[in-house]
Amino acid sequence: MRGYFAIGAEGLSKRMNLGTLMRSAHAFGASFFFTVDAAEKIRKAPPTDTSKSPGHLPLFSWDSVETMDLPRGCQVVGVELTDEAIDLPSFGHPLQAAYVLGPERGSLSEKMLARCDHVVKIPTKFCINVAMAGAVVMYDRHRAMGRYADRSLTAGGPQSDRPGHVHGGPIMRRGRIVPGTQNSGA
């Protein structure tokens, strides 16, 4: 899968949610995990993170929206139930993204919403647990950006194999084909 993604939450207060969300982030291949304005007691991985994800992906704990220091080009995608938010199944995921969820029993702050490049919502009747919402978002990204066969229109598995990799044309530098690239004759 091309690109990278991170996932985090603003204002978390429950260690169990942090651990479960970190474990899911590790399982789905996140590049890093973050918290913004989290309760002091949960700024490190709790015991519910049985995959020991901090040994596999960095954990950043920022004090505020203003101190968030994301890589250049990384788009912030808020996950929030608002009327203006894009339904997750219709959303085109950015190649470089940091998904941010709101706190338990709360919403993303106005400052965080202003920082977001996009806001998506999971089309549910009511809010779901923050760790579960994070897993749904990561699954949707994985499904949308992975190279999978088209979903079957009827019950059961796909009717065709996964599409093969498509190679690009030759890479040109100063009018010459770079040795070792496709169609270079090397």
TrEMBL record:
Q: List keywords of the entry alphabetically.
A: Methyltransferase, Transferase
Give coiled-coil spans as residue ranges.
none
A Pfam family per the record = SpoU_methylase
An individual GO BP term = RNA processing
SUPFAM superfamilies found in the cross-reference section: alpha/beta knot
- Superkingdom field: Bacteria
List the molecular function annotations (GO) for this entry. RNA binding; RNA methyltransferase activity
Q: Where is this region: Disordered?
A: 152-186
Residue ranges occupied by any tRNA/rRNA methyltransferase SpoU type domain in the UniProt entry? 7-139
According to UniProt, the name of this protein is rRNA methyltransferase
Q: Which organism is it from?
A: Roseibium aquae
